[in-house]
Amino acid sequence: MIVAEKNRLRQATSSVRMGIEAHLGWLKDALSQLDEELRQHRSSNVDWEERIRLLETVPGVGSIVSTTLIGFLPELGSLDRRRIASLAGVAPFNRDSGLRTGRRSVWGGRAQVRSALYMSVITGIRCNGPIRSFYERLRRQGKPAKVALVACMRKLLTILNAMIRDRTPWQPQTAGP
Questions:
Q1: 93 forms bridges with which residues in the sheet?
Q2: 48 CB-near residues (< 8 Å, 6+ apart)
């Protein structure tokens, strides 16, 4: 909403500008209050704090992604790779019917988790060696960019799931393609 209001502000007439600026101020105050509540909740919950610290050892996973995963995917670390991928909405499902074999696609799952994983993979392709090499290998095999990104999202989620399950930090030599 802050971005939307800033965009409106650029085109607003002077009579509307004050109202938009006031709304922007309120939104920023509300956001900082929510951030503070989230920080307090994280620090008061030892299990969350430990899990978040583990997740943030992975290149490309920051505080927003780790908090989103812990908050919206509490099953992380307790399910197998197929179930956790399905919950996050990055598991491929077939579209077959009778003799017809359709394309596999991802759908369903938790949109917040999927969005966070997407942004993490976009960053990870730049700074996370195993994810980058996996992505590049899929692209060389002729996979479309979005298909390769979703495959990387699933791979990253599988790695994060194993890290939380085993309570081990990021180990790039064992997390490669």
A1: 105
A2: 41, 42, 70
Partners of 100 in beta bridges: 97
Q: Are 116 and 65 in contact (CB under 8 A)?
A: yes
Is 0.85 surpassed by the pTM of this model? no
Q: Both ends of the chain: CA-CA distance in Å?
A: 39
The full DSSP string for the chain is: -HHHHHHHHHH--HHHHHHHHHHHHHHHHHHHHHHHHHHHHHHH-HHHHHHHHHHTTSTT--HHHHHHHHHH-TTTTTS-HHHHHHHHT-S-B---BTTB----B---S-HHHHHHHHHHHHHHHHH-HHHHHHHHHHHHTT--HHHHHHHHHHHHHHHHHHHHHHT----TTTS--
- Average pLDDT, stretch 128-138? 93
* 40-55 pLDDT, tens digit each: 888 888 888 899 999 9
Amino acid at site 74 = P
Is residue 163 within 8 Å of residue 70, measured between CB atoms? no
Residue 72 backbone dihedrals phi, psi, to 5 degrees: -100, -10
For residues 84-103, b (16+ Cβ closer than 10 Å) or e, as one string? bbbbbbbbbeeeeeeeeeee
